[in-house]
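Title: Prediction job returns without error message
Component: structure pipeline
Severity: low
Priority: P3
Assignee: unassigned

Description:
Job completed but the reporter wants confirmation the result is attached to the right record. Sequence as submitted:
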Amino acid sequence: MSQEIAKESTVIPTAVLGIFVLKCNTVRQRLNDFFCYEPVILIGSTAIAIHLAHKLYNRVPNDGVKKGFMRWFFRNVRKFPFVKKQVLAELQKTKDTLHGDMLKLMKGKRKPDEFEYILTLPPVGAAPDDIIRNLKEYMELGNYSWKNGSVSGTVYHGGDELTNLNVEVFRLSAWTNPLHPDVFPGACKMEAEIVRMVANLFHGTSRTCGTVTSGGTESIILAVKAYRDYAIQEKGIQYPEILVPVTAHAAFDKAAHLLNMKISHVPINPVTCQVDISKMKKMINSNTCMLVGSTPAFPHGCMDNIEKIAELGIWYGIPVHVDACLGGFLIAFMQPAGFVDIPVFDFTLSGVTSISADTHKVSQ
């Protein structure tokens, strides 16, 4: 009995397959009768299939199918009334918390509910003394006194003498515009001199170039854009990807978001807190357009092994960017100062192709 059942279960799929093949042949015959030439069908259907596959591939988000599906799923789940109600309640709770926290920050001579908020443009311009008085009051708000050094990583204060110098420099150059070097050649000269001094400090060559930016985030975004454009135009990479340590500055993620690029984060060694070189090597692929190392990284203050990262860059022909925004203008002087154990991180390494460094962090 069991053998008969097994035979019947085998016969049914075979019959279904036979019917499917017969239907396909019928469709094929009708198409051939219409077009009168079978290769046209083969070529045309292949072209259509390739086109559809290409369109489908282009729909895959930069961060992968899984994350893209999760976004689609939660975006649609939030449309259900009971889910939407819960989400709105949580958003309102968050808004209330933020409002309360902001009021706590308004520590000054007045109570938080006594502050006057200027929400519209005044019909009459304020007197200079009133502007200064309001500014002083605003600057006194808050619970922290950064001048005593209790907010490390937020303010890098170089003393009153440097502050006064900065104020005078700004007074003299406030109305210059570097976009017009023909009108302000002095501003152009200052930038060129700064770039050359920094290039020499980091052991660059006569061909090393650079630019003065508003800060580390802009420097990183410009570096990422340069490598993206280089990968597309010179190496023929259609979808360039960034490979960074998981401890890298958030500006790399911002750059990837702004420039519509995929970014992958390499784990660190749990003991040294440096990027794991072996895992970075395994994560390199044909779309990788730049490798990144930090000197030091923000979370732990540890320097990645730039020498090993540079070796990977040379071996695979991938540019290497060193993010020295936090300590670049400090560690550059440490070896000459006698700290011989500081590893090499700059253009001395042939694999290093760019460096970002901030003068406003631990260099004043």
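Comment from assignee: result matches the submitted record. Confidence is low (pLDDT under 50) at residues 1-9.
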